[in-house]
Amino acid sequence: MALLPPKNRLWWNEPLHRMEIVWITIAFLWGIAMFSTMIWWHIYGEQNLSNESYRILPEVYAERVEAMIEEYQVGEDEFGMPIVRPPVGADVYLQARLWDWSPILELVEGETYRLHISSLDWQHGFSLQPTNINLQVHPGYEMVVTLTPNESGEFGIVCNEFCGIGHHLMTGRINVLDREAAKAAGMQLAAGE
Amino acid sequence: MASIAVPGRQVVEERFRTCPDTGLEVHAKAETLIRVNVLTAVAFLAVGGLFGLLIALTRWQAIHLLPAEWFYLVLTAHGAAVLIFWIMFFEVALFYFTSAVVLNSRLATPMMAWVAYVLMLVGALVATVAVLQGNSSVMFTSYPPLQAAPHFYLGLILFAVGTLISCFIFLGTLVVAKDEGTYEGSIPLATFGGLTAVIIMIFTLASGAIILIPTFLWSLGIIGTIDPLTYKLVWWGLGHSSQQVNVTLHVVVWYTIAALVLGARPLSEKVSRTAFLLYILFLQLASAHHLLVEPGLSSSWKIFNTSYAMYLAVLGSMIHGMSVPGAVEAAQRRLGHTKGIFGWLREAPWGNPAFAGMFLSLVMFGFLGGISGVILGTEQINILMHNTLYVPGHFHATVVCGTTLAFMAVTYLLIPIFFQRDLVFPRMAKWQPYVFGAGAAGISLFMMGAGTLGVARRHWDITFTDALISFDYPATAFFMLGLNGLSALVAAAGGVMYVLVVFGSVFWGKRRTAAEAKTHPIAPGAIALRTYGSEGTLKLPGTIVLVAVFFIAFALYYFINWRFLAGIWGMN
After folding, report:
1. Tens of pLDDT along B381-425?
2. Is B343 on the interface with A (CB under 8 A)?
3. How far is B471 from chain A (nearest CA, A)?
4. Which among B71, B100, B43 has a CA at the least distance from the CA of B530?
5. Range of the structural domain that residue A180 is part of
6. What is the ipTM of this complex?
7. Which of A29, A157, B546, B553 has the most CB atoms around it within 10 Å of its CB?
């Protein structure tokens, strides 16, 4: 037994005190819990992003959006933006470009759609308000999200990725019809009551 | 200022002086470099802080100060000036401090340190000029296909090369100190933390080189396209990892201030160093934080990376979060402040701006920055927050409340040590951390509040006056942005106080004499800083209460956000 501590002490030989080991254990278990929560939510939660995405040429994507608009257009707003009402369960396409979101989609509350999003030029940010869903939109990548609106009303789309001087002008809209209105308009609904 | 012969040192030509306050032997060339880097940093903080104020006053819809073009330009300049230039010049000074000064060594290759400084300065000025010319309003992140002028990227590359050189000077100094036997045993904790930061910095700058050099060539037209997703993945290896350098170094600053002011030692060298090791091993995965709502990446990739491999780096921060206040409490109790659970905290030197700034930085970084960062980086919860004002709210809590406040606090010790001057406006200095801290806390909280309501970041006009399709954010959001503007005014006042004290002191402060230093010596603190050893006292009820409160706040806020998420549209 040496009376004095050795001169060249090594940090990995230092004692670990009880208070510290308790806190480290709690913090470690909390980390595992948070990690598991994300996985658990993928199994039981209802808000998860899909892993479905494709590489696509912007001009090909634009053609698909055009085709959908042609097939399901029901009108246009005062500035000429087409309003599109696709059948429930359909693949719906939203296009971001400098500086608008096209078209205005009309969906039905409680029904599920496959929403495709891509950009024709720069990166944009899809921010659906006030429900508060925020997705990143890249040119050349097509993201597909299976979406089920749980409330009716008018929802704004704001661009929240900086895309040049007109960024703050880049807005769009999704209208969600309530189920009664959709039935009155003669739409076939899929989801049960 | 005579040259000092230290036994075992082979180089006798180098000039050293013994600091009368701390007893540190300071290498003259290292001292000059530390001074110059600190002052350059503060100059960039002054400019960048002013830009920040202009932004906050523009987002305050009632004032809406700048026109759109200027807003985006100033926003880009703000990010570059404070997040890169202020912080990194200061970090280079800390590299030289934690290597040469703490180890009693000479600095390796001071000439190269000057080359590094000149490269960084030229790079910073070139990039700033590029932004101010108006063709490079691409934001801090410069995501392609958005393109800046070539000299914007070139400036950043030059700056990065300079920083890289200073990293190698740090490593070289470790070799010199070891070789010349200027210390014994393991390197002190501050140097260990500095080494951690240098390792992460090298990773960071390598990522930067991999992405910024092709982007520079693309801006010249030599390369056809840059894939936007690949850019983001690699760029954030630079952008986020550099924030981990900041975290590491402000933790080093916390330990340093606790040591110098109170003679505090880490509770256990093993625990604190393991926490730094966790940073090295896992922090680099954080690029994923910016890719959580991106197409083309799988959920398993996102979950593993965003959690730093099951939150092992968060574990590191939570360890420091206990270890630093624990070290303060232990030191205070040793000094006789033993009344009750919080007597040590009540009787802490709150009038010393170094201590006050350090403790505010610690608390706000943990409660505001740390918790919000984990929430924001949770894969699904990110859907609620991506690119909203919550994001700048979060990182102002980490980088302004945390890093900037800690760096300001340590400046109050660097001025007497390296400039040998007294502070000019001591009362102003005393209040400065509180004023700046209150403003910074307000900025962070109110931006997070507006972000929770969905307000977009980097957005000139959320009234959408000129947009074809309009949308109304809730009135509360506008109220939050007003409070954010007021907080920015308070923070700016705190910033002005800091700049006045720093420049006033280094140019006009009274020169310190050895006799004066003895009236308030921090010499015992310097021994705690530069030697190795754990704290013995471990009855720390106050720290236990603090971490318990932190943990409860963390867990509650975490689950509240899952509740928010459960309320939005179903998606899978």
Report:
1. 999 999 999 999 999 999 999 999 999 999 999 998 899 899 999
2. no
3. 6
4. B100
5. 53-184
6. 0.93
7. A157
